[in-house]
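Section 5.1 Outputs to date
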Amino acid sequence: MSRRTLIVDGALDVAATLRTSAAKAVGRIVLHGGDTWWVQRTPTGPVSMRIGGGGGQFEAEAFGPGSGWALEHLPDLLGVDDDPSWFRPPPGPLRDLHGAALGMRLGRSGLVFGALLAAILAQRVTAEEAHGAYREIVRSYGEPAPGPLRAMVPPGPTDIAALGYQDLHRFGVERGRAMTLIEAARRIGRLEAVTRMEHGDGYRRLQAVRGIGPWTAAIVMGAACGDPDAVPVADYHLPSLVAWALAGEPRATDERMLELLEPYRGHRRRVIFLLERSGIRPPGYGPRIARRRIAAS
């Protein structure tokens, strides 16, 4: 076990901040015994890390071969360099939401494949299906987390790169998403470099992989790289959520969503997180995404 003490200026909500670096709300974040645990596969191996504290001083204990990497990157995970006070929306619901969530900072995990795994599985399916597929893939190809917490570490790119697309059918993942995920795993060496690139170059590098479009790239660039302006266009629910919360319009296109978010350029990812965690929802009428049965061939 390794430890680190982190001094943070200003408010910090550990769990809420860690969720900003968990793609599509899928991440190994566990609340246990009053502390927050972060379980992941780092470049140096699996880790489970307990984070507790408050009042500007936070203590982290890490278990497993990924401990050194996780503790080194703890300030990134907890958004130490992010200052929410610079975001000053005009009077209205958004200002109220921001005022109630000052401890939520925008973190970045630095883990490109972890973000890709969650984001690709969430393409064009319901949240229920995406979370179910993620959970079962972790159970089948992951490994027990080091340390005292009973949890599973997600599989790494080597584990997924060795699969055929048919291997993922039993988790409800059709050929298109399966091949995208496997190809991303096989090209992870080039894709991991996006954490060291300018954001525009990172988007282009990710979208060079067939099956990774603007939506998936934005999810990854936000979660892994901390892009504060990442907007996942072509999302099924997000345009209407933004339009309803900011303009009282029950339905919207991507173009209308981007128009409404434009005044917040530079902070659009923060606005999206505030709206998603607010409980605000547009009127629930219209078609839903249908669940599909994936054939075994």
